[in-house]
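Researcher: I'd like a structural prediction for the single chain below. Treat it as a standalone chain; there are no partners to consider.
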Amino acid sequence: MPATLPDPEALASALQRHRVLGQLDATAREALLARLQPRRFAAREMVAGADALTQRLGIVARGSVGFHNEAGEAAFNVKAPDWFGAGVQPAAALGGCAAVAETAVLVGFLPADELAALLEAHPALQLFVEPPSAQRTPSEAADPHMNLMRTPVRKLLKRTPITVSPHSPIRAVAELMRDQRVSSVLLVEQGHLFGLVTDRDLRNRALASGLDTALPVVEIATVAPLTIDIDAPGFEALMLMARHNIHHVPVMDGTLPAGMITATDVTEQHSSSAVYLSGDIHKQTTLEGLVATAARVRTLQQHLAAAGASAYATGHMVTAITDAITARLLHLGEAKLGPPPVDYAWVAAGSQARSEQTAKSDQDNCMVLDDAYEEAAHGTYFKLLASWVCDGLAACGYIHCPGEMMAMTDKWRQPRRVWAEYFRKWVDTPEPMALMLTCVFFDVRTVAGRGELLDGLRTDMLRRTRGNSLFLAHMVGNALKRRPPLGLFGGLSTIRSGEHKGTLDLKHEGIVPVVDLARVYALAGGHDAVNTHDRLAVAADSGEISAKGVHDLRDALEFMSTIRIRHQARQMAAGQPVDNYLRPEELSNFERGQLKEAFGVVKALQDVLAHRYQGGSRF
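Model: Treating it as a single chain, here is the predicted structure.
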């Protein structure tokens, strides 16, 4: 960072002399100058890495900036008064490049969103600059899952739906599927979806069972199937398939069937490992088989890291596998113990609930039982089932929660009415233990069983927390106990003693503070989102945090989480135990600078919350 403030006159002069920007009128150049973020760099100092190059436009006011390829060789340079980065060079061409100061330089940066506004105000500039929305960053190109996040299901549909009446003969449906060359059909009556039939259903439920093919096809159908909305992101369809071991999902346009999306549709140009790993999990009939299959989760994370997958996508993928293992353990447990005597919901908590797991995760879970539960009659069954699942998860690599926040612990395996009282007490009497528990059990999601048992509890809880200044003040105080590891002068502050001396705790000092902030935003607004990125997006809509704050915080979270995942992937490759402790020397100078900026963003927004809820009242 510069010791003195950059020279605004040099930036103004560069804009005036620029071959394109110099053609703007004086008022427009002044407005652009006000938007520039000036930075000085010493010779040989990193100016920007590949990702940063695609996220902002740089205008060189003084000096020369060189571009180096992945081998460190100089490719080309840009001298004052010229520009580089977003919109000027194609994003694909910047992949693997790094911008390095060849001399002492002064650069004015214009973020991509500001660049978009500039191009909208002066359309003629689009002759020379490509709008940021038309470009794909190298990380997006490397991360097909992020492409799926931006691709609605409707764009993945390849044909109009093939439908039949539920009363159609099985043989007639099989002939139709053969003639239409499809692997599935939808059962529709008077515009309403009744179910679906796949070629596997024909094989396993009809032919292999010797069923009369003159019977109505509804006899072999999957009725009331899981569906997805036509405008949902394709990534949601991928996760739905991975979590539930299904390969065909009906697509709905409101209440009308719009088509069918298959595993091939969402994976033919994308990584399919999570879908097929989930399928293998559901094929296992023994705990030993599950343990062997679960060992491939680390390989999945390594592959995702090597492909440059985002932390957001990686978290969802890894968590989908945990969900699949949990569901399979429940199925195997019920096969051993018999059907459950009353309904239940198996609930994931913590990082699994948020879909933010990595290969280094312990387990946080609980059970919500139907209020028909009676301890004397049903207690032994559910204790055995919960112990089977929790011990099975431990055998698969998800260690028992050190705080025993698991369904195998009697306290966390209770009827719905007891859980309702738990949540009421935690909100109305937020003493230290209650605040600690809220950080686990306010992040919950049903993995298996009757989701309605949890849904009503969360709705009641969010109604109690929304606008509850006293409770939120306590939550903020609890959240501020973990601060980013920045020293007095803004440098990285490593752990000073003990086993992890000289490292940064990426999880507890970087990622957890962001998770805590997002949780406060969600509880304050009464929003039911659980994933941290999703909570932040909703918080911006409700005014709990500014749009710029959300942008900065989401970028900070993504960067810290990506660094953590790559750190763990390196440990796996080296055959080392996986942890969250990073030595700063593992990072480049540029990455260390980004990490300091990320920590600074978190600290600044923590300070905003501290001020807002001072003394238990919101200003």
